[in-house]
Amino acid sequence: MVMLEKTFVVLSYIASLVVNGLAASGVLSGQSIGEISDQFPTYVTPDGLTFAVWAVIYTLELLLVVMQCSAPDRIESLLQQSCCLTGLSVRWRLVFAFSLNAIWLPIYVNLLFGWALLVIILYLAFLFLVYVDLNTMTVDSFVQWVVYAAGIACNVSWVLVATAANKFTFLGELGWKDVYGVAGTPAAAVLVVAVVASIAIIVAAARSDFAWSLVAVWALAGLYRQPSRIHRASLQRP
Fold it and tell me: Which residues contact 230 (CB under 8 A, 6 or more apart)?
């Protein structure tokens, strides 16, 4: 059973990586995910450079995926730990998280923003459930943290912002736009920034998890850097 779990972790990670590449290239819908992001601007969508964080996330998660195949006893006990909500081991939670990422991408790039929002909320939930058992407080060393926990911390921090952007996009298509066609409002964006920043501060203070916090800072900096002419014009309106 454990070998099956290990295999599915590897396969689901590969699937998410491949689908991410297809989404970025535009193969899945004729438009890349970056083009769609530009086409449907929101007040909480970071600039294009910010999405480079995926390279860090996938690299760190690659370490986790490879090393979970031959984890030391202490980590193995963590990976086999059952979730109090789902009853699933950490590995199965990883499988669900990676799979939901792969499912979300083609739904989003085909402009099914409502369904995409449901999927990304589940994706965020499973990432958080993995983080509960793989974090700075459960591993024994800095090296273990980098290998087994840092990637998940980065991922959940980023997807928190992505979920907000998906929600703004969905609500924007339902009519929640300003006169410039930007989904959301500055006040709602400030609320999102406050929530993301507050969570990052709490995680840094309570768990000394600076991977989560640094990704949050990077994402929020991306909001500030957003170069969209429409976005900037809307921010400067009287």
Answer: 41, 180, 181, 182
pLDDT at residue 35, as a whole number: 87
For the chain, where are the alpha helices, taking DSSP H only? 2-25, 33-39, 53-67, 73-79, 90-109, 113-133, 142-144, 150-173, 186-207, 210-225, 229-235
Six-digit token string for 109:
């790039």
Rounded CA separation 138/40 (Å): 40
Q: 223, 34 in Cβ contact below 8 A? A: no
Q: Which neighbouring-strand residues pair with 89?
A: 82
In degrees, to the nearest 5, what angle opens at C-alpha 213 toward C-alphas 149 and 121? 75
Instruction: Evaluate if pTM is beyond 0.90.
Output: yes
Residue length, the chain? 238
Ranges of the chain with pLDDT below 70: 227-238
Closest CA to 184 of 173, 194, 199: 173
Q: Using an 8 Å Cβ cutoff, are 162 and 50 in contact? A: no
Q: Give the per-residue pLDDT at 232.
A: 53
